[in-house]
Amino acid sequence: MRIPGPEEIRALHRKHAPTAEAFELVHTHCEIVWSVAERLISASRLDVDAELVRAGCLLHDIGVYRLYGDDGRLDHENYVRHGLLGHELLAREGFPEPLCRFCSHHTGVGLTRHDIETRRLPLPPDDYLAVTAEERLVMYADKFHTKSRPSVFLTPDEYAAHVRRFGEEKVTAFETLRTEFGDPDLDRPVPYGGASARP
To answer: Where residue 59 sits, what CATH number does that domain have?
Structure first.
């Protein structure tokens, strides 16, 4: 499988971003998620395909662009659909399924058919769970940085507290990822603009 490099992915973001501001928000977040994942790989000497993880991090949120309206506003009500929209976008661009899955299988700590049906989420009922180590790492690294304005970093304990509102099983799922990959070093500056230091 051919894995696209950072410049190719950056060009894809530019192609689909509806505005320069949207590009800056989403692409910068994706770069930061890769920075977090890269630190985890290095610190724990993880046995993963780092090139695939990099591509997954840089692509995982590309579907967010499809949630911007003509007025330039983000459709927050349907935000949970961004992963599936990204999967569809990449598939139309000719990307293979393993790369498309980084989009549709990174939301929260995984969405199940039960989650979708009981919470009446606007998604086709199915399980959208990270399966491979690379998918799990992208999903995990994504939990530590927000796309809010201003963007912030979350500590593992802060994310665990955040995800608790969706049920204790989600906290357990997050703690399983934490055990697998370790805690990221968020005290060093991240080499990308646009993100504030974590509290």
So the answer is: 1.10.3210
